[in-house]
Design a protein that fits this description.
The chain has about 400 residues and is of the alpha/beta class. About 55% of the residues are buried.
């Protein structure tokens, strides 16, 4: 049995720098209340909840949701690195689509600390062991570069070496993100920067990356109410936005052998997930007008244009130069400002993308609206690894 799954309500709080937010309990409860209010739904009608976060103790999801209500429903805590929020959404959608429940909540939050990401546990093998081995072999010249910057910067450098891509193209992607975020009141960074500003910022890896090409650590929360169409009609909820298809993939052997930084940071995962979604729906990527994708670094946004089939492999620089990644071009990528400017609270990111795209399809995105959007694509990546690609449509 397969049911059409509707996004009946979404909620998101403004993202902030670490230290400027409420606690994860406050943020999670606030985002949930916003989603319930948007849906016009009482929490007592939610049958299951899937709660995503990366940095937190077990059952943190219960702590946040207990502030909304003590309803006794199953609460599943989810951690899939940076794709955690979309994994929570994937589980909620799967529960509804299968008929296991009629209504589920997906919630994501993160209370982050300043500085580069690091291991929470140093007394056991790292979950990034395979990726680090490739990185150490291919990026030995960047020993002093923080590991996350080295991985994605190394992938960008590989693209530069294979296709002649220039560092200025990554800077142009970051500048585009700032222009989009200037119109998003929920983004953490709303100041507009130029390509030249990005190029002249602090150098993190000479010839490869400046500081502005990396997303900032961020605190925030977002949530979505997922329900069957029958449930929505019964309770007078919205049915105008539906999840047409969704795919969750993990690494295949090609991620590590032969060694490639582009593959190590999830290119194949994203490509397979996108193809599965296109095949299920019969949608051509050229027909998609708006995408929220995982631009944790400007380099990864460029790679993702290719893995999602928005442009040919090797053609991403021309895609950027032609303006095909913004308003007036072929597909508006990250109208929210993306992770680079909107911010990246790890567990919340996938559901923040859901919030943004739901508003796009409703036609209520205001100053970030992509006119006439009937389809919207979401890409959320976590190294280690997991990738979720979701295609939404107007019902």
């Amino acid at each position: 049995m397969s049911q059409k799954t509707c996004v009946a309500g979404v909620g998101m709080i403004p993202f902030t720098k670490p230290g400027a937010s409420g606690t994860y309990i406050e943020m999670g409860a606030q985002a949930t209340r916003l989603a319930l209010r948007d849906a016009g739904l009482d929490y007592g009608l939610v049958q299951q909840a899937y709660v995503g976060y990366v940095y937190g103790d077990s059952t943190s999801g219960q702590s946040a949701l207990y502030e909304v209500g003590l309803s006794g429903i199953p609460v599943v805590n989810v951690n899939n690195n940076c794709s955690t929020g979309s994994t929570a959404l994937w589980l909620a959608r799967q529960a509804v689509e299968s008929g296991a429940v009629e209504c589920a909540l997906a919630l994501g939050f993160e209370q982050m600390q300043p500085g580069a990401l690091g291991n929470a546990w140093n007394d056991r093998p790292s979950i990034m062991g395979k990726c680090w081995a490739v990185t150490d072999a291919l990026c030995a010249d960047a020993e002093s570069v923080p590991m996350a910057l080295k991985m994605f910067g190394g992938a960008g450098r590989e693209h530069m070496q294979k296709y002649g891509t220039r560092m200025e193209t990554f800077a142009a992607i970051r500048a585009k993100a700032s222009r989009h975020a200037a119109n998003n009141p929920l983004a953490v960074f709303r100041n507009v920067v130029s390509t030249e500003d990005v190029m002249n910022d602090k150098v993190m890896w000479p010839g490869v990356m400046t500081r502005l090409m990396a997303c900032p650590p961020t605190c925030g929360a977002a949530a979505a109410i997922i329900c069957s169409e029958a449930f929505a009609k019964k309770h007078g909820l919205r049915t105008d936005v539906v999840i047409l298809a969704q795919s969750l993939t993990t690494d295949a052997a090609v991620a590590y052998e032969p060694p490639s930084m582009i593959q190590a940071v999830g290119f194949d995962m994203a490509q397979r997930a996108a193809r599965a979604v296109y095949e299920k729906t019969g949608v051509d990527p050229r027909d998609i007008p708006v995408v929220e994708l995982h631009d944790c670094f400007a380099h990864n946004e460029l790679l993702t244009y290719e893995s999602l089939g928005l442009c040919p492999v090797g053609g991403a620089e021309q895609f950027v130069l032609d303006g095909d990644n913004t308003y007036g071009g072929r597909v508006v990528t990250n109208p929210s400002g993306g992770l680079l400017s909107k911010g990246h609270p790890l567990g919340a990111t996938g559901l923040a993308q859901c919030y943004e795209l739901t508003r796009q399809l409703r036609g209520s995105a205001q100053s970030t609206q992509v006119e006439g959007a009937m389809l919207a694509l979401q890409h959320n990546l976590g190294l280690g690894g997991a990738c979720v690609v979701t295609l939404y449509g107007r019902n």
